[in-house]
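Blinded run. Sample ID left blank on purpose so nobody reads anything into the name before looking at the predicted structure. Input follows.
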Amino acid sequence: MLTVHSIEAAYGVSQVLFGVSLTVEAGRVVTLLGRNGMGKTTTVRSIMGIVRPSAGTIRFDGRAIHGLPSYRVAQAGLGLVPEGRQVFPNLTVRENLVATAANRAGAADPWTIETIFDLFPQLAARARILGGALSGGEQQMLAIGRALLTNPRLLILDEATEGLAPLVRAEIWRCVERLKARGQSLLLIDKDVAALTRIADAHYILEKGQIVWSGTSGELRAREDVQHRYLGV
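Blinded prediction complete.
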């Protein structure tokens, strides 16, 4: 579904990515791991057209998307839950959701506001509350719901549990498990290795803008040396 091949990216004269390659197959859950500052978010921004790679290719369903603006990438079927949530603070929960609702791919069972409220009952109870008045956990649920309402074929979650209370993190992981059961293709960026190896099919580890390891969940669980070297604090 998604093929990233040897991309390089920079901010001005500061190069961040050095030949990053990864793939996400349809219906699979893949993670991008690494310590802070290693290039994970820049990789996501490159995929979504926010940062234009200086080299390499990004293809979605065989179509080159690395030269497209962000809105065209989204229209192609990629959805993003950005780091920091970035909900519209002056819109209500319902308005935040309505603002992005679309079914461009003509999915037979599309996400609707009602199914999002079923996924996150807390949002249904807060439907008329402004986004800026929600708790961090509620804002994260809203950001996920907003992205799902674009009915993406591939959903990218960038640090979806960062800074959240344990009970809220557990709720987010339950949501991810439900999405996987539904057959949703996912690319996850997070630091909870235990949760990720329970849910994901494959993993890529970034170190200083390069992929230094890739493998399955079983392989990653067995490689404590890899976890300590590239993911430990």
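Unblinding after everyone has recorded impressions. DSSP finds ten helices and ten strands in the chain.
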